Amino acid sequence: MRVGLFATCLVDLMRPSIAFAALKLLENAGYEVTVPAAQTCCGQPGWNSGDRESARSLAEKLIVEFEDCRYVVVPSGSCAGMIRAHFPEVFADEPAMLAKARELAGRTYELTEFLTKIAKRGVVSASFDGTVTYHDSCSGLREIGVKAQPRQLLAKVAGLKLIEMEECETCCGFGGTFSIKYGDISSAMAEKKCANIEASGAQAVVLGDLGCMLNIEGRLRRRGDAKTRVLHVAEVLAGPTEG
């Protein structure tokens, strides 16, 4: 079965290892994976900032690029949320495109959601020697219900112990342009998140959105924490990858 991997622009630019890890997980689950070479952005930054024209253009481009895939898998709750929750809003006044947007939304999944619900992965071959805590990224949690799925998969990783931090569902302060428009508030939220991570005693914080990863890791390092690892759930589940 053919599955399309939407790597996301942020992963492509900042941490391609996440895409390689997602690719490995999907191929190990027995899927034929295609990664459209011209893919770029889902249009979320423009949509959230009021630039409806650019958001529409990018949304239409993505719909065309993945129209031949049975499923579309995204290693990002926020980008999956954009496709599922907001693409129908983008094309609300265009009946033909709205139908295509809804059709795409119906076959688009966040990575851990896909692995648990569609691929039904009973075994994870990776191992991790240490303790981790999990941060629930806002869009994945609130727009598409990603909560139990990553924890179910992490529980299958040999050697890994999950320790829940306080307020694991509270925003890290990133929020895309929120962190730029409201820098002081964002910084305070990130500081509290990192304090909760530190208090958990975990050796690593694991999550499913690169924007949150960058925000949290940046704050951890600025507050002098050079040891706590910040990892995408795909990197933990896939183990070492080539690429």
Short note summarizing the structure:
The protein is of the alpha/beta class and 243 residues long. Helices cover 51% and strands 14% of the residues.
According to CATH, the fold-level topology of the largest domain is Rossmann fold
- How would you write the strand order of the largest sheet? 2-1-3-4
What is the count of β-strands?
8
Mean pLDDT: 95
- Going by helix content, strand content and strand pairing, the class is alpha/beta
Write the layout of secondary structure elements.
Elements (H helix, E strand, L loop, with lengths): L1 E4 L3 H6 L2 H12 L3 E3 L9 H6 L2 H14 L5 E4 L2 H14 L4 H11 L2 E3 H7 L9 E8 L3 H7 L3 H7 L3 E5 L15 H4 L1 H18 L3 E4 L2 H13 L6 E4 H6 L5
Parallel strand pairs: 1-2, 1-3, 3-4, 5-6, 5-7, 7-8
What does this structure look like?
By secondary structure, the protein is of the alpha/beta class. The protein has two domains: 2-117, Rossmann fold (3-Layer(aba) Sandwich); 127-238, Rossmann fold, CATH 3.40.50. Helix content is 51%, strand content 14%. It contains 13 helices and eight strands. It has helices at residues 9-14, 17-28, 44-49, 52-65, 77-90, 95-105, 111-117, 138-144, 148-154, 178-181, 183-200, 210-222, 233-238; strands at residues 2-5, 32-34, 71-74, 108-110, 127-134, 158-162, 204-207, 229-232. The strands form two sheets. The chain has a four-stranded parallel beta sheet, with helices on both faces. Strands 6-5-7-8 form a four-stranded parallel beta sheet, with helices on both faces. α12 links the parallel β7 (204-207) and β8 (229-232). It is globular and about 50 Å long. The two termini are 24 Å apart. The relative contact order is 0.15.
